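Dear support,

We are seeing what looks like truncated structure output for some complexes. This example has two components. We would appreciate it if you could run it in full and send us the complete token output so we can diff it against ours.
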Amino acid sequence: MRAISPAADAQIAGAPPLELEELPAGVGPRDSVLRGVFRTTRGRIGAGLALLVVLVAVIGPFVAPHSPTEFVGPPFAKPSSAFPLGTDTLGRDVLSRTLKGGWELLLLGLAGTAAGVLLGATIGVVAAFRGGLLDAVLMRGVDVVLAFPQLVFALLLVSVVGPKLWLVVLAVAVAHAPQVGRVIRSAALDVSERDFISSAELIALPQREIIFSEILPNLTSPLMVETGIRLTYSVIIIAGLSFLGFGLQPPEPNWAVMINENRGGLSANSWAIVAPAFLLALLTIGVNTLTDAIARVSLGVDGRRAATAVVPARPPALEVRE
Amino acid sequence: MVARRSALGILTLLLASVLVFAATQTLPGNAATAALRNTGSAERVAVLERQLHLNDPAISQYTQWITGLVKGDPGNSLANGEPVDTLVMGRVENSAVLVLLAGSIGALLGAALGVAAAARRGGWFDNTLSVVALTFTALPEFLIALFLVICFATVWLHVLPAVAQIPPGTSPWSNAESLVLPTATLVLMIMPYVFRMTRAAMIEALESDYVEMARLTGMSAPRVLFLYAFPNVIPTVVQVIGLCLLYLAGGIVVVEYVFNYPGVGQQLVAAVTDRDIPVIQFIVMLLAAFYVVVNIGADVLALIATPRRRLPRSG
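Here is the complete output from our reference environment:
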């Protein structure tokens, strides 16, 4: 623990909340970051795209003209007035299936992200604070999971149990936790070296209270950025698994499943692929663009950290010691 | 440093093997029920369990598997009884060609564009490329693949095969046409990362004191760019290339499946469909080993390429 000057000591005696003064440059309280994000073009475009897809996914099931599993015409019929986007490989209405094929993907993506960020943040904060052996063990565990490409890791789990939705969420969460853990650990170590933590320790606040009321509020920015990155990748992994046939299962409609099952009819009725592909692309692009805006606003404009933030955290960065 | 790194790498691999083994052990169901797709009668499951030694204690099963793996005998496929290593190794070359080809093209193009964009920071060239790169990093691989198929193989043009045709036993090089679209997909997947990281590192280098100093001496702009700024970006580029090779190890799974390209990724998907656990375990361990080796290689190369470490000795 750092030596603390009498002047600083006197300041602590009054014990005003110190966090606000101690925020690093560019990082404001949460609401001002979000307001800043919506002032940027990227933030607005990203949020707009993501919101559009969410609206389609949420409202879509209520306005779909047909049942998504009903056979209404010949396979791969061209668009007509009855079926604006034509029919799919089994003669089902592409429009209805597209409208109903988003919410499950979205929900699983959110669940996997929430679980992964929670798990990863816990690992990161615990590793940063307990230090020592526990830190070493946790970080080694993180390295091990990182040795598998995320999709491959998910495939490994799914291969034994079979495609179960809880398993997909679990696989996504476990695949994300290491990266989140790394980022949050280093951010927590960063914060824990600031003076207001030393002073909190000096006035003997219990460690739990230090973690929850002093550290966590200061990790909001990295957590928001990480959540955004992870949400993009959750959707990509779940869509990839479903595309390969190991995630969400037919006959229920789902954008990734639709893209896979209609591949054979690309030249007959390309809408059967283009429509779900377009929405899926808008979703991941929207979330990623919004995340980029958050990273730029909260971690420094256009700097190196913003660019690296949207690229998943690298394994132990090269250490150049002089 | 290399020795320490290698030791850590071997430890990581060993722990990874425990994880792979534990995943197939602790999750409900086992190799026997999985191979029979959960529909086999109790007797058939029992017979297969005996054949696979599934009733032995977990520790002895693990040691049996890991010693086999180290000795180069990872067991037989549950789907067709053939040795796993001959089954998989025949496809490693195909996948390696894809990964190395896409890795080198993507890295070169990405780094070149990154340097060019940083040199014209804030201009239309930089802004356009940055937005395009941001868009592509967000796209799932299979969407990029299908987009290329729509453009070049089905709807618009018919100039390239939508499905790779590489007969077993022939080299992928002799079927170059089949390589184009899978490689292009993987290039589009990694190039944005290389671009973004190179650009960011280059901007940082261009803002440094030594570049400012070089400019003040009246040196020409290209000279400053390539002799002073660029060498300091190389370590970052090396690290990013390493990272990209790792992305590619995951990317080949989906891309090989889309193009029906006969590599280990496609085989992994087939093995997961068949619940062929020995093959899955082997391929997953192979990819993990690739990860560890690339990681060590990238760290060592980046360290060698760091001018700050190199210059004091020569000067």
